[in-house]
Amino acid sequence: MNTTQTKKQEQAALLEVTASEKPKRDSMENLLELIGESAPYVEVYDVTVDNGVVHSKFRPEQQRYAETTLMSCSEGLRTMAVHGVLACAAANPARSKHYYLATRADIQVFPVHATTANSFRCVGRVNRIDQSKRFPLYTVTVTCFTEGGERYAVTEVECIGLNEEQFVKLKGADAAPAVALVPGQHSPYVDPVRPMRIDWTQPGEALRTTLDGFRHEDFAGHFAIRAMCPVSILGGNAFSLLRHFPGFDAYQITRCVLTCDRASLPGEPLHLSCVRERADHFVVTAHNSKGKLLSTFHIDARAHRL
């Protein structure tokens, strides 16, 4: 076993121990006010902090499509990334709103005995804060548990932290503020996968497709000041490509390592390509209409046998 694997196992073990302890409520700060994301992108509750460790709960809402795990991989990425952002806010000594933009994420999903899940709970903390050339770089580990306490997934996220001035300078700002969803309005994150026309560049081995641009409201809560496509929405469409490969009518994603180069904006067409490199390994790349790389997904998956 290599050093990196040992380190990740030790971190996961630490978080499991911490998860069994009763968290103390942090009445001094409302972490949800210190991050750029908001509802409906953020759907967590019972957020508490204990000695730098953040605890939260969430209820899965997204369709799983052909995935047979307890929740879709893209929803796991979305919710665990949100939890990681909350951990960054807890660790950031600057008690003001910041925008934490992911540059890399590594999610691993483990076998569990549970067959249904009404809710999950997450435990996360910042492992380290490094200084890049321009911005601080946070590395966060988040562990997700089922209602029964089984370890369901572990995600390590790397993200840069920007205050509002830095964010606007880097990403710009929308001319008009985002319109908040009214209570009871359908969340765009319940069904994020769009219809696609598949073109096989190599039958059974490689394909490509183009997505029409998403609407401004499809990115609700990400972010109010500048609507940008969450990597989870991009990931949901990327993961759905696997169902077109022979034998993958239903499947389980066991690991995904993704890198984020840039985010797409509303109305921008997206070009996706998927290559089956091995029987259980796929690589999806996403580019914008100008040919610039958005994200790369390295996916380990196995076909589900009924």
Characterize the overall form: globular
- The averaged pLDDT comes out at 89
How many beta-strand segments?
12
Question: Mind summarizing the main beta sheet?
Answer: 12 strands, antiparallel
Order of helices and strands: HEEHEEEEHEEHEEEE
Enumerate the spans where pLDDT stays under 50 for 5 or more consecutive residues: 17-28
Beta content: 35-45%
**Count of DSSP H/I helices:** 4
Describe the structure concisely.
The protein is α+β, with helices and mostly antiparallel strands and 306 residues long. The protein is 18% helix and 35% strand.
Walk me through the structure.
- The protein is an alpha+beta fold and 306 residues long.
- 18% of the residues lie in helices and 35% in strands.
- The protein contains 4 helices and 12 strands.
- It has helices at 3-19, 73-91, 164-171, 231-240, and strands at 45-50, 53-58, 98-109, 120-131, 136-146, 151-163, 199-202, 206-211, 251-260, 270-278, 281-288, 293-303.
- A 12-stranded antiparallel beta sheet has the order 1-2-4-5-6-3-9-12-11-10-8-7, with helices on both faces.
- α2 (73-91) packs antiparallel against α4.
- It is globular and about 55 Å long.
- The two termini are 33 Å apart.
- Mean pLDDT is 89; it is low at 17-28.
